[in-house]
Sequence to fold (298 residues):
Amino acid sequence: MTPLTLDDPFTLNNGVRLPAIGFGVFQTPPDETTDAVLAALETGYRHIDTAAAYGNERGVGEAIRRSGIPREEVFIESKVWISDYGYEETLHAFEKSADKLGVERIDLFILHQALPSAFDRTRAAYRALETLLADGRVRAIGVSNFMRTHLDDLMAEASVVPAVNQIEVHPYFTQPDVQSADAQLGTLTQAWSPIGGITSYRGNGGGSTFDDPTIAAIAAVHGTTPAQVMLRWHLQQGRSAIPKSVKRARIEENFDIFDVELTDAELAAISGLDRGVRGGPEPEAVTLETFARDIPEA
Ligand SMILES: NC(=O)c1ccc[n+]([C@@H]2O[C@H](COP(=O)([O-])OP(=O)(O)OC[C@H]3O[C@@H](n4cnc5c(N)ncnc54)[C@H](OP(=O)(O)O)[C@@H]3O)[C@@H](O)[C@H]2O)c1
Fold:
């Protein structure tokens, strides 16, 4: 189901419900994470996306406790880093993440990347997620940055279809082939850099989505901002989105998107902005040699 109102969550392929809009914390410094997540929770967000590799799971857990909102009302998503792939290693990675978050159970636990050159380790890591799911330590499992071939290779042996594939999707890079592979499997596509943050903080010489004239014109018609237009584009096309900000005004702006309705022509115009240029790492080039990083104990 596509969420068109705040009360309309996504239903994952195992029946678990995911709030319509989430909050990201990539690059949020550990000492700013609690304030940012608290601001998000006060605004009304009930889904937080973090990762072991972001180094800020502790701040996320602290914000949830300080908010006073019952734990079961907040949907926590986190990711295992590639350095912790392998069956036993990934089971242990869950304990590290859960302990840093200060929770017994993580709502959605996903593999951060495929490791194409060591796919046996990727499979073993996913088997550990299946065990965690069977044991009730997580409510849903999934993947991130998996291309169609990685999904095919995973499903050749996996028994649980990933609930979510979190991939780079913004108006300048939409990955239609991965989105259709997700849809064929029954996997929800979740957009990272949903408002094209990566076109701004990484830059690709081609300007950022925030300054795009087509998006600006649509925003002007609706009396909204470019970020709000992009977030509506995701929701109306059935994608989960997890915008990040450390600024309260933007955190509120990115949540205030439930009174806008884009037309089919506007949705198509935004999709037509795709330049086919990836901002994140090339998934095939992610190896332990180039991207290893130690994930500390809790
Ligand atoms: N799985 C992966 O490999 C992966 C990779 C990247 C990201 N992610 C996840 O996806 C989340 C979002 O992606 P992202 O952080 O790359 O990009 P994003 O959410 O598209 O954009 C965030 C950037 O835009 C700025 N911003 C936020 N709201 C704005 C607004 N309304 N108007 C103008 N600028 C605004 C933010 O700066 P301020 O903070 O200064 O406001 C930040 O620089 C991450 O936080 C993370 O949870 C996952």
